[in-house]
Specification:
Blueprint lengths: L3 H11 L8 H9 L9 H20 L5 E2 L4 E2 L3 H8 L15
Length: 99
């Protein structure tokens, strides 16, 4: 599906050197700041965001406009509430703060 030369460039750009751990172990080590993941967060995070936007549109069954700068839906509070999710349980608020 991707031309061979372009696939080779992408493979090189996404390579993580020195990773000897499996997927789960590399994820845990990366969370602890001890290693890089086999699947880099810079790729997985953007991909997950894109997929979740589609999930919100599908759930609401309507076309939505998304502002990339603010990372919010324009003029649709129901859609934005789905992005926010439910509030954390009491006592867990500190773990939901972005760092």
């Amino acid at each position: 599906m991707i031309p061979k030369e372009q696939a080779k460039q992408l493979e090189e750009a996404l390579a993580v050197e020195g990773t000897k751990l499996g997927h789960e172990a590399s994820f845990t080590a990366a969370c602890l700041g001890e290693a890089e993941t086999r699947s880099p967060f810079r790729i997985g995070g953007a991909l997950t965001k894109t997929l979740m936007l589609g999930v919100v549109c599908q759930r609401l069954r309507e076309e939505l406009q998304f502002d990339r700068q603010t990372e919010r839906f324009v003029g649709n509070e129901r859609a934005n509430a789905l992005l926010d999710g439910p509030p954390p349980r009491p006592g867990w608020e500190q773990f939901y703060e972005m760092v």
